[in-house]
Amino acid sequence: MDYELTVDVKAPAERVWEQFVDVERWPQMTKSISDVRLLQSGPLQVGSQAIVKQPRLPRARWQVTELDPGRSFTWQTSAGGLTTAGSHAVEGNGSESTVVLGLHQHGPLAWLAAVVYGRRSRRYLSMEIEGFRSAAESGSK
Length: 141
What we know:
Elements: E1 2-9, H1 13-21, H2 26-29, E2 35-38, E3 49-53, E4 60-68, E5 72-79, E6 82-93, E7 96-106, H3 110-138
Antiparallel strand pairs: 1-7, 2-3, 3-4, 4-5, 5-6, 6-7
Helix pairs in contact: 1-3
């Protein structure tokens, strides 16, 4: 399954980026995430890991695999024949920006995950992009 959403945000890219990398605050921005706990201190970087709990899904350990500071990061988790990657990108245009979130699943059980979790995954991604938009536009930290 590959699913991507794009939204225009009436806030500068820097503000959106602050929301992206403050992963432990994500539960305050969206009901699709119950808890996020970073496993190390300091700024988000390639190799950073976090335990993420989402409603009606098992806890998962996510690891940052790509990071372009101020622009994008991707993290992924793997379990039982399924690898899931979450991508987060922002492109600025002065006082506004464009946000793109993606969810990409592959592996021998990706087809099964799409059937069982596809609808929920798409709904959660929609909730997350709206949460980032709302938080950035309101200027909340």
